Amino acid sequence: MEYIGEHLFPGQFGHLCAVLSFVAVLLSSVAYFFATKQRETATYEGWRNLGRLGFLLHGLAVLGVIGSLFYILTGKMYEYQYAWANVSDDLPNQYIFSAFWKEQQGSFLLWSFWHIVLGLVLILRSGKWEAPVLAVVALAELFIASMILGLWFGDFRLGASAFDLLRDTMDAPIFNQADYLSKIKGNGLNPLLQNYWMTIHPPTLFLGFASTLIPFAFAIAGLWLREHKEWLRPALQWSLFSGAILGTGILMGGAWAYEALSFAGYWAWDPVENTSLVPWITLVAGIHTNLVARSTGFSIRSTYSFYLMTFVLILYSTYLTRSGILGDTSAHAFTEMGLGFQLVLFMAVFSLLGLGLWFWRYKEVPDMKGEESATSREFWMFIGSLVLLFSAILITGATSLPVWNKIVQFFNPDYIGAALKDPIEHHNRYQLWIAVFIGMLSGIGQFMRYNERNWKMVARKFAIHMAIAATGAIVLTVLNAQWINVRAWQLYAFLFSVMFTVVSNVDYLFSIAKGN
């Protein structure tokens, strides 16, 4: 039957670009791999240039996919399932962006877009690190590109296409009519997503997700090339950027949740948000051990571990969000689209890549002889990083109960499954005191020095600054407690730790400014 009014070319072009992006990034990953292997030979530049060409073609193809999908959404082309499910004639144009990344395909494209932008920056600025780092970035892009392919191989479909026709996704009598398009309307966008936060929060959050790949890639490059100190400096720049952006994205999501959903506290929020916080926590821990490693030579192994762990946790968070496994416990997770196997493979490959290289090179990584002094800055920064790791483990363990239940039920179908009776109380019981410790440590650590060997000479000055911080914190705690009506003593302790680190850091900034 020849249908009236269908626009098939945008979908065909978009699908062609999706296939091209997959092929191009496969070429780029292979070329950058060989460029790294032959970096000391005359063929290096040839492989590197081929890698660049493949990555640029991949970027253009992804832009083609994004452009095609936006064209379909803005044109309200309801012959496409993606448009029919997410837009309507009365949807304001500013929320087309929310509709774009509402579904899995759009969010994968957003993630891919930011990888491409960051990859281009690396091509321009990373110098000798380009080949090994871009090899890892291109490999990650290969998996993401596979998520939107939508190609059938017998009964198995690789990826979920954003360009499926509505009549191919459902069996309804209306499709027996050639003019069916004149009789259907789009479903429109969930009112909760018609919010300005949802136009700016996802791009920021996904830039944060995408940027965690770069410190991971530098860690892989450092292990791969056996340059265990040189990689620390460029990795630190990227990890600082990533920590700032990912943290901002999480805060934006919190603002949307409080405004649109009236949540009563962070831990009352969704498990999906909990899993997005965990990689940020381990990334911050990695930033601190990176600073220690750069300044003293300690904690290089820990820095490797934290950066490798962070991106793997991003992938784990992605799996929890997109596999449908949180469908019974989360109102925020994506619906399952048959991508579970690909997501597990994505996570497994990068986990094995990181673990394999880390164990292989472990003995080669420089390890400082002797212990850090308990009065040195690096000692307490490392302790703080371990506390952050403990926090991440607690959150991940509680959030992963549905995964554990699925595993056990696979072997024992009669298993009912474990669940937290009160997730909010569980998280508050531990995370509040972790936050108190980190807050106090953040204020105290500023006035300690690296490689401290003469504590007696600085002890009096340290005590004066701590007294200033404690006095200011007490005053601000009392004032703020009255303002926001704090009653529980635990919250007084938490508020004091916050005010303590604020006053201490302001004092430190003034001390640095006065001393040039």
Uncertain stretches of 5 or more adjacent residues: none
Give the radius of gyration.
26 Å
> Count the helices. How many?
18
Q: What is the count of β-strands? A: 2
Major sheet description: 2 strands, antiparallel
Give the integer mean of the pLDDT values. Answer: 90
Q: What is the distance, rounded to the nearest whole angstrom, between the alpha carbons of the first and last residues?
A: 79 Å
List the strand order in the largest sheet. Answer: 1-2
Describe the structure.
By secondary structure, this protein is mainly α. The protein contains 18 helices and two strands. Strands 1-2 form a two-stranded antiparallel sheet. The radius of gyration is 26 Å and the shape is globular.
Short recap of the structure:
The chain has 516 residues and is mainly alpha-helical. The protein has helices at residues 9-37, 44-74, 81-86, 96-100, 104-125, 130-147, 166-169, 197-211, 213-225, 232-261, 271-296, 300-322, 340-361, 377-399, 401-411, 423-445, 455-484, 489-514; strands at residues 151-153, 156-158.
